[in-house]
Design a protein that fits this description.
Elements: H1 20-42, H2 44-51, H3 60-75, H4 77-91, H5 93-112, H6 117-120, H7 123-153, H8 159-187, H9 190-195, H10 200-216, H11 225-229, H12 236-240, H13 242-274, H14 278-306, H15 308-328, H16 335-353, H17 356-361, H18 369-385, H19 388-397, H20 403-420
Helix pairs in contact: 1-5, 1-7, 1-8, 1-10, 2-3, 3-7, 3-18, 3-19, 4-5, 4-7, 4-18, 5-7, 5-10, 7-8, 7-18, 8-14, 13-14, 13-16, 13-18, 13-19, 13-20, 14-15, 14-16, 15-16, 15-20
């Protein structure tokens, strides 16, 4: 792998910018970002009932429509990854970080006040679509800005550790979203949840966005002034580094489908396919996310010692082999079976999530790193991650629900072939 920076990442030349302070700045806003993003997933069933009309007497139709809007947000992510990635490369990571959290706060407020279909007709779904588009743009820029910020702020031999905190913070955001949704479901009647209770988590998210904005405004820019003055064009990363762009896609395919399967879609999968109670499935999701967050730094530290490729291969091969039997272990009404399956899947997933930020950042040079990662990563997430809930629900509607685990396994196998040929970069210098 070639690096062009005159300042290599070595113990003598690249001390951490400010250690814990940088971790806090890079992760606190990320918590808010992913709280807002995942609140939609956890409350999809309630949103479906209020924003979309029932279709042909089939209760799956409004749910499918809701997950279609979920996918719309994902397809806005490549645009956000490209535009905010270029902003991060041209004007600094900190500027991009504050922009993403501000956009997320606005979109979260829009969802909270979205009018229902019964009140204003088609305007309700239109408002929801616009809000999800803004969320998609923000989330597309968030991964690239926060991951490059964290990895570039890491000291020698700590890129994997710092990398892991991206998914720690993202998972904390999910835990807050899942926990808030669970609290609302247990505290309110079913009718109150359908009428107005589902809006409360989004109002909380809008307020939390202001906190994230305040924290990120005080972050320290990890790149030097000479780098900010050497500004790339909008498509420089794609034009000058096509192989690296394709590599990001291959790295991401299996990781993104597994991530959204195990961390977001599984509660809905259990409800739709096994008849699980909403409260039970949400509680299992929250408990397993706590487990997931705790093990991320362990994966990051391990990768700094043994390398990135062993963890990536363990994730890809393990998920490809075990996904089908694991999902087959879910039995109707069994709280422990669902908890075991979700935690086992997340343990496998950690081989990817704990080091994804470091692996992606080690592919591109600093000048185009954010935009170089942002567009291909977000495009891949949109095509394979954002559509996971829709594909799973659609397969169920067609009577072939058992095909979904095989779909996940196949995509993880594709990424495994990429990991097999991926150069080991854990102990190589990082262009900063």
């Amino acid at each position: 792998m070639t690096y062009w920076s005159p300042v290599p990442d070595t113990p003598m030349t690249h001390p951490p910018a400010s250690g814990i302070r940088q971790l806090v700045a890079g992760t606190v806003g990320n918590v808010v970002e992913w709280y807002d993003w995942h609140a939609y997933t956890f409350l999809a069933i309630y949103i479906a009932a209020e924003i979309f009309p029932d279709g042909a007497g089939n209760p799956l139709v409004p749910l499918l429509a809701t997950f279609a809007v979920f996918a719309v947000g994902f397809f806005a992510r490549p645009l956000g990854g490209l535009l905010l990635g270029v902003i991060a490369d041209r004007h600094g990571r900190r500027v991009a970080l504050t922009t993403t959290v501000l956009l997320m706060g606005v979109s979260c407020l829009m969802i909270a006040v979205s009018p229902t279909y019964a009140t204003v007709g088609v305007l309700g779904p239109v408002v929801l679509v616009v809000a999800r588009l803004l969320q998609g743009i923000s989330a597309g820029g968030e991964f690239t800005a926060s991951t490059t910020f964290l990895v570039e702020s890491a000291g020698y031999g700590k890129r994997g550790l710092f990398s892991s905190f991206h998914y720690v913070s993202a998972t904390v955001g999910q835990i807050l979203a899942s926990g808030t949704a669970t609290l609302a479901v247990f505290s309110l009647s079913e009718q109150d949840m359908r009428d107005w209770g589902w809006r409360l988590p989004f109002l909380v998210g809008a307020v939390l966005s202001l906190v994230g904005l305040w924290v990120r405004r005080g972050a320290e820019e990890p790149r030097g002034k000479w780098q900010l003055e050497n500004r790339p064009g909008l498509f420089d990363a794609l034009r000058k580094h096509p192989r690296e762009s394709l590599l990001i896609c291959g790295i991401t395919i299996g990781g993104t489908i597994a991530f959204y399967t195990w961390t977001s879609y599984l509660p809905t999968y259990a409800q739709v396919n096994e008849g699980f109670d909403k409260r039970q499935s949400l509680l299992v999701g929250t408990l397993s996310l706590v487990f997931f967050a705790l093990i991320q730094p362990l994966g990051g530290v391990l990768s700094d010692r043994v390398g990135r490729r062993p963890l990536l291969m363990g994730f890809a091969v393990g998920t490809a082999v075990l996904c089908v039997p694991l999902l087959g272990l879910i039995t109707s009404g069994s709280f422990l079976s669902l908890l075991f399956v979700q935690c086992a899947g997340m343990l496998l997933l950690t081989g990817y999530t704990s080091i994804a930020a470091a692996v992606n950042s080690e592919v591109f040079p600093s000048q185009v790193r954010a935009a170089g990662i942002g567009f291909p990563y977000s495009l891949t997430v949109a095509v394979f991650g954002g559509t996971a809930p829709y594909v799973g629900t659609a397969l169920n509607a067609m009577g072939v629900a058992d095909a979904f685990p095989w779909y996940v396994a196949a995509l993880c196998l594709v990424s495994g072939l990429v990991y097999l040929r991926l150069p080991e970069s854990a102990h190589e210098p990082l262009d900063t």
